[in-house]
Amino acid sequence: MTSNNNNNNNNNNNIINTVILDIEGTTTPISFVHDVLFPYIRENLVKHINRKWGSEELKQDIKELYNLYLEDNKASELVVNNQFNTPEILNPDEENVDEEKLIESIIRNVIYQMDNDRKSTALKQLQGHMWLEGYEKELIKGIVFPEVPKAFENWKLNHIDIYIYSSGSIAAQKLLFNYSNFGSLLPYIKGHFDTTIGGKLHPSSYEKILSTINNGSPNNYLFVTDSILEAKAAREAGLNVCLSVRDSNPPIVDRQLLTTFDQVSSFDQLFNKYNFKN
Ligand SMILES: CSCCC(=O)C(=O)COP(=O)(O)O
Ligand SMILES: [Mg+2]
Description:
- The protein has helices at 30-52, 56-78, 99-115, 121-136, 148-157, 170-178, 203-213, 228-236, 255-258, 270-273, and strands at 15-16, 18-21, 161-165, 191-193, 221-225, 240-244, 262-264, 275-276.
- The relative contact order is 0.19.
- The two termini are 12 Å apart.
- It is α/β, with parallel strands linked by helices.
- The protein folds into 2 domains: 15-28 and 142-276, Rossmann fold, CATH 3.40.50; 33-136, Transcription Termination Factor Rho, Rna-binding Domain, Chain A, Domain 1 (Orthogonal Bundle), CATH 1.10.720.60.
- Helix 1 crosses helix 4, helix 2 (56-78) runs antiparallel to helix 4 (121-136) and helix 4 runs parallel beside helix 6.
- Bound molecules: ligand L4RZE5RM and magnesium ion.
């Protein structure tokens, strides 16, 4: 273990027994998400809706998207410059709804959310369902950075529990790690969390995750993420936090806040920075 000179809240003598990892920008290049996963959704959305029309899974996905539209609309009455402006989805439960128009409204809504990189649970659930076929047909392979499998192995050997917390749905997370460029990494991962537990910018989400995992006090946990706002929220919940500053990530703009966090550009560096239980 080495100490570091950052004026962060981490006490690097804390004994870490659990790591919680973000995906995009942390275990996985941002380019994989934006240049492979997201284009797959755009290219296959119409086909997916037509193929799955009438299925319980798609009905549920549409219901979630519709509820989100209603919620945003309600919120927009209260906020002057509403940040969402989510395109209308026709009520899927209306008896005489024009199916063609309903489908058009769903597509408009999904594409709008994706154009804005919205991390809504509704969008992420649909995406997760869509990627299944892409992975199964080997059209997509999940990408993790080259040192990630070795780090997983190392943590596993030392009985450090590995959890994932991503805006991507739990189903999408499992696909990415099951069909990874290094084979299935799922056996290394003890559990998964997505935004159904709460958004990644809220300290309460991290508190809920910790009470679900139940592996001791917050300072036994290490959260690694590329997002400084997620890092701030997790720190407020008392976790040790390390920023993933990969060469391929966009630079973090708030330089001042950045200096208050530990940073690594590869998981290898975590092993010198933190005191993992062994
Ligand atoms: C689980 S793979 C899909 C990635 C994704 O959709 C996403 O929004 C990634 O967000 P993260 O919280 O992992 O940065
Ligand atoms: Mg991320």
